[in-house]
Design brief:
With 297 residues, the protein is of the alpha/beta class. It is built from eleven helices and eleven strands. Helix 1 (4-16) packs across helix 4 (60-85). Strand 3, helix 5 and strand 4 (118-125) form a beta-alpha-beta unit.
Length: 297
């Protein structure tokens, strides 16, 4: 790549047509201007000007380099305008989170975009490890995960927590639920369901629960939006974070059991350290904070 400082000196030289005037404009010495020109010519590998006394004309290579200098100026001008304006309703933003949280967040994101035609937002549902990797690699601007990553290249903000819920069909008994009753119903299993069972059932059914791998499975589904569907139709029970329950369109057909010991998952917002959030990212972060507050209500 061409040296930006030498390129700008050459561009100003072409505009003024004079070494002394260029030096004055750039607060340099005249020998400094000549040195920048020689270094740029060495980098390009060709002469950029043909001198005639105190004046000069551009060589074909010089004309090509001048075009690059002007184009780079225009790009920098547009960049400065974008940074200075920092419009919360324009530009690109990306966020990654769990599938259940994505179901709750996405409708809010669509509402945010309705009055912002210049705003493009990417949402990706991914496992926690993929969220972290994506933020570190710059593929995601923001991530929502279940713990403080304590990573030297990331900043983390505690958002709150959401309950891990035992989900039953509406109208069924939700008080004093026993493990035998759940086994009779059967488990609506899903990829995260087994770890959820180990977390929640180990707390509440210590005498009868012997591990998620021994649960009676009634059906299995790996589409997050479809996990509550069998339960809503009276088939089995399942385990989901509160966001997965609240986001389900048939929420009225579900009930959450009251357990003696409740389990919560933390929610953390993560982003790369040392990079202040732009207005659009701050707007997206604030939307995420609001969603988490709703989960706690």
């Amino acid at each position: 790549m061409l040296n930006a400082s030498w390129l700008e000196t050459f561009t100003v030289l072409c505009e003024t047509g004079h070494f002394t005037h260029t030096a004055e404009r750039l607060s340099m010495t005249q020998p400094g201007v000549s040195q920048h020109l020689r270094k740029l010519e060495h980098q390009v590998g060709q002469s950029l000007i043909a001198q005639q006394g105190k004046s000069f004309s551009l060589t074909p290579a010089g004309e090509a380099v001048l075009a690059i200098g002007r184009a780079r100026r225009e790009e920098e001008r547009r960049l400065r305008e974008l940074i200075e304006a920092d419009d919360p309703k324009a530009g690109r933003a990306s966020i990654a989170c769990s599938g259940s949280f994505a179901m709750l967040l996405y409708p809010r994101m669509l509402a945010m975009m309705q009055d912002a035609p210049e705003l493009a937002v990417h949402l990706e549902a991914a496992p926690q490890a993929a969220v972290l990797a994506g933020v570190l690699e710059g593929r995601f601007d923001l991530g929502v995960i279940g713990q403080d990553p304590a990573h030297p290249r990331l900043d983390a903000e505690y958002l709150g927590k959401e309950e891990l819920c035992l989900v039953l069909p509406a109208g069924t008994q939700t008080e004093m639920v026993t493990f035998d009753q759940l086994e009779t119903r059967g488990f609506v299993a899903h990829p995260d369901g087994y770890s959820y069972a180990d977390e929640l059932f180990s707390l509440n059914f210590t005498g009868s629960f012997s591990g998620a791998d021994r649960l009676r499975v009634r059906t299995y589904v790996n589409q997050i939006s479809q996990i509550p569907a069998p339960v809503a139709q009276g088939i089995g029970y399942t385990l989901l974070p509160r966001s997965g329950v609240d986001a389900y369109s048939g929420k009225a057909d579900l009930a959450i059991a009251s357990l003696a010991k409740r389990k919560y998952h933390e929610l953390w917002l993560v982003f790369r350290r040392g990079r202040p959030l732009s207005a659009r990212l701050e707007r997206l972060a604030e939307l995420t904070r609001d969603v988490v507050k709703e989960l706690a209500d």
